[in-house]
Design brief:
The protein is an alpha/beta fold. It has 7 helices and 9 strands, in the order βαβββαββαβαβααβα. A 5-stranded parallel sheet has the order 2-7-1-8-9, with helices on both faces. A 4-stranded mixed sheet has the order 4-3-6-5. It is 42% helix and 22% strand. Helix 1 crosses helix 7. Bound molecules: guanosine-5'-monophosphate. Guanosine-5'-monophosphate binds next to strand 5, strand 6 and helix 4.
């Protein structure tokens, strides 16, 4: 089976990561989004096998036992998320580079597992206050999940220096340019 490079992007929810990832994928068709598995319910507009592989806990736990994950984690209480090895291989076998969009612990776990292959990028919001406002505007969170996400973001910031690159998303255009540039340097044979 082919194996190659991996681009790993981490950012607290509300940091603008989704927009940046979309822009990166549009300008670099060589990259392919790695669809994670998770046990949370789909949000409005999300689809199985496109946004996530939405599994129930029993199925997810069975896959853990079968060592099907490159990494997995309980990201929020009772909510499992993981990167399937089969997903990375599906993308490599198709001649592409996977773009893995996961949280800090998952990113560090993947880069431990595939040290020579990974570029890890941390996307930072300009401040926790901006993050809180963006999350509120998105309107997808309850008061409790908003608090969970903010405290996770504060915790994650501590790990940013462990990443190969940190991109601060205070200006979307600038952050997009920076992101495309670092990825293009990492996979120079593929034009982004
Ligand atoms: P959301 O529920 O907002 O889609 O994602 C919540 C968090 O889970 C985000 O920080 C996201 O990056 C992370 N996440 C998504 N997929 C994975 C995965 O496969 N593994 C890990 N460790 N985290 C993931």
């Amino acid at each position: 089976m082919a194996s190659g490079k991996i681009i790993v992007i981490t950012a607290p929810s509300g940091s603008g990561k989704t927009t940046l990832v979309k822009r990166l994928l549009n300008s670099c068709p060589h990259l392919q989004f790695s669809i994670s598995a998770c046990t949370r319910l789909p949000r409005n507009g999300e689809h199985d096998s496109a946004d996530y592989y939405f599994y129930d806990q029993d199925r997810f736990k069975k896959l853990i036992e079968e060592e099907a994950f490159a990494e997995w984690e309980m990201v929020y209480p009772g909510k499992y998320y993981g990167t399937l090895k089969s997903e990375l291989h599906r993308i490599w076998d198709a001649g592409h580079t996977p773009l893995v969009d996961i949280d800090v612990q998952g990113a560090l776990a993947i880069s431990d597992k595939y040290p020579a292959s990974c570029l890890t990028i941390f996307i930072e919001a300009p401040s926790i206050e901006v993050l809180r406002e963006r999350l509120k505007l998105r309107g997808t969170e309850t008061e409790q999940s908003l608090t969970e996400r903010i405290s996770k973001a504060e915790h994650e910031l501590v790990f940013a220096p462990k990443f190969d690159r940190i991109i601060i998303n205070d200006d979307l255009e600038k952050a997009t340019r920076e992101l495309i540039e670092v990825v293009a340097q990492f996979i120079p044979t593929h034009i982004c």
